[in-house]
Amino acid sequence: MRLLPRSLFGRLLLLLMVGLSVAQLLGAAIQLRDRDQALYQAIGFNIAQRVAAIVELLDDLNEAERQRIVAALDLPPTRLSLDLPWREVAPTETGRAAWFQRLLRRQLGADRPLQVEIADFAPDPDWRPHRRRDADLPRAPRPEPRRHRMHTLGLRDFVVQVELRDGAVVTFRHHLPEEALSWPYRMLAALLVLFLSVAALAALAVRALTRPLRVLADAAGELGHNIRRPPLAESGPLEVQRAARAFNTMQERLIRYIEDRDRILAAVSHDLKTPITRLRLRTELLEDSPLRDKFQADLDEMQRMAQASLDFLRGGDHTEPWAAVDLDALLECLQEEAEDTGREVRISGAARQPLRCRPATLKRCLNNLLDNALKYGQRAELTVVDAPERVILRVHDRGPGIPEAELERVFEPFYRLEGSRSRDTGGVGLGLSIARNIARAHGGELHLRNHPDGGLEAVLELPR
User: In which domain, by residue range, is 39 found?
Assistant: First the structure.
């Protein structure tokens, strides 16, 4: 299973998204922690001031007045009671309980007996702070379940007990409201909008950065099919301009090299034909008929070798223009030419639409494959498979086949399985090499395989 995308665009975008996600999560954690701290301090100061004010008020009242005041002030989220006994709590020097206790002492005085307990429990809904409440007072509502509470904030419900001057104990039990502890959805929504905005901008930026690479790759792939394609536009960032300029320079040099090579090959071809023609004329003057026939055969073989070598060096006629060709008509022409020489070629399948190619060059490639099949397999069967993106031509013979280790070596120039170049078998070992060069010049591929039913099959794939 591949975890990384195959394209550079996908990998860069994935890297940016992972980095952005980590940064957003860390930023959200820091903001939530700061919010927790600010919320706790604000609530703590407010509650401490309220507790101090109520304690100072109750200090100067008698028991009956205290009960009335407590009943009046006993409202959520802070519940008051004068009936609960003093409950010893283990002292703490650190933490929020100690911080809140120090805050209360600054409000009430250092000699005031008090204790603070912070715990993560909900107030008892049936707890009544005092038993002398009037019957018509509403009962405290049962709190809602804490479905969205953020325990990571560290906010807790707390109980404060303070001893009054006359020894009475007043108990404050505060329950932070659920809305104070819920997730800050507005802040999270803002972070999500920020993340999506930056992600969209990152995707556009990565697309803009990788597009020149895609254009350069497409141009390099097209260069193999059409060396005279239009040059790349030298625009964009400096690095893109330099890459496009280097590619255009390379294309110009390749065109000059091919033109120089074609001129040299044309000159060599002309220079070879002249002495061969002179030798043919002199051979005709020989009186010895058997010797004349041997000279003539040697000259024919020399001419075939020279022509095959030149065809291989040309690698296909790059000067021939591309055209849409009726592939079925081309194959029927090859079939008729083979039948005129008494050889059998069977064709099955058909092309649904014309194929864009170099007609004469492609005909030479197919002719080499058919000659090879008829030479070693007596007859050839040609199958056409037309797909939306490519055309596959299979040339199957009924010969002995080729050892698996030799299937690729036969494409090497001048390599022949029988190890000789006798006139009986013909050829110089360049037919398959020329055919593969022509196939690759068209952007396709040619390979051989031993057919399961016997014989050798040449598979030619050409792109649409």
Answer: 1-124+149-221
